[in-house]
Design goal:
Domain YetF C-terminal: 81-238
Number of strands: 8
Pfam family, one: DUF421
Largest sheet: 4 strands, antiparallel
Biased composition (Low complexity): 159-171
Shape: elongated
Number of helices: 11
Helix content: 40-55%
Order of helices and strands: HHHHHEEHHEEHHEEHHEE
Strand order of the largest sheet: 2-1-3-4
Distance between the termini: 76 Å
Protein name: YetF C-terminal domain-containing protein
Structural class: alpha+beta
InterPro entries: DUF421, UPF0702_alpha/beta_dom_sf
Length: 254
């Protein structure tokens, strides 16, 4: 008898939770804000308590879940036409990369580290931060990346020059490819690009050895970018073309 009671309670709670989540709207499934996440976790916990404790009335679980549903639906309706309420519950997006420059203060405030940034850039098929115009951390935790738009005029101009020069353009391209191949060993695994060489002022010696370079080479490279010491560099990466991206700490003037 107790087994049948547990089975009936499980099926009943399943359909109740299913209906509650559906009534919360598709936004609940597509994007979890902080409020959505809290309510989802609380509904799940209440459902488990009601199923496990067969001596407890099912209404002890149904009523709290309906209250949570009313809170979620009520706040959603209020936020439809009130941006202040929307910002209060959902927060605002944060600009992590602005015109190719990393905003470290925003990263610190959001507790968002460099590994998170590089991971989500790779997910957006971006190999270098230098190619990013804006990277915006949405309220859902997703990173929206807007790549830099290349100047079509310069591209057309370059193509015209290459056509007039004949094979000279191809020769220059071969030289660029050979230069980048000197920086990146042929057997290097490209799926982990861009390769971090300096993170938070600390040299990533393991990655440096993978591209068969030394600290002496790296120091000369960052000095060409205006940094005098490794500690001045917040992030330094190299992409598959052998192009370096260097973000330097800027001292605030008092």
């Amino acid at each position: 008898m107790e087994t049948w009671n547990l089975l009936i309670r499980t099926i009943a709670i399943y359909f109740i939770v299913f209906l509650i989540l559906r009534m919360m709207g598709k936004r609940e499934i597509g994007k979890l804000s902080v409020l959505d996440l809290v309510i989802s976790v609380m509904v799940a916990e209440i459902a488990v308590l009601v199923i496990e404790d067969t001596d407890r009335s099912m209404w002890d679980g149904i009523v709290p879940m309906l209250v949570l549903l009313a809170i979620q639906v009520g706040t959603a309706l209020l936020s439809l036409n009130n941006r202040k309420i929307r910002l209060l519950f959902d927060g605002t997006p944060s600009v992590i990369v602005d015109k190719g420059k990393i905003n470290r203060d925003v990263m610190r405030k959001q507790r968002y580290n460099l590994d998170d940034l590089l991971l989500q850039l790779r997910e957006n098929k971006i190999t270098s931060i230098a190619d990013v115009e804006f990277a915006i951390l949405e309220t859902s935790g997703k990173l929206s990346v807007i790549p830099k738009v290349q100047d079509e005029d310069s591209d057309s101009g370059e193509s015209g020059e290459n056509n007039s020069l004949g094979l000279s353009g191809n020769n220059e391209r071969v030289k660029e490819e050979s230069a980048s191949s000197k920086l990146i060993p042929p057997g290097f695994r490209y799926e982990i690009l861009p390769i971090p060489l300096i993170m938070d002022g600390k040299v990533q010696d393991e990655n440096l050895s993978k591209i068969e370079k030394t600290r002496f080479w790296l120091k000369n490279a960052i000095q060409e970018q205006g940094a005098h010491d490794f500690k001045e560099v917040f992030l330094c990466t190299i992409d598959h073309r052998g192009k370096l991206f260097v973000d330097i700490h800027r001292k605030k003037r008092g």
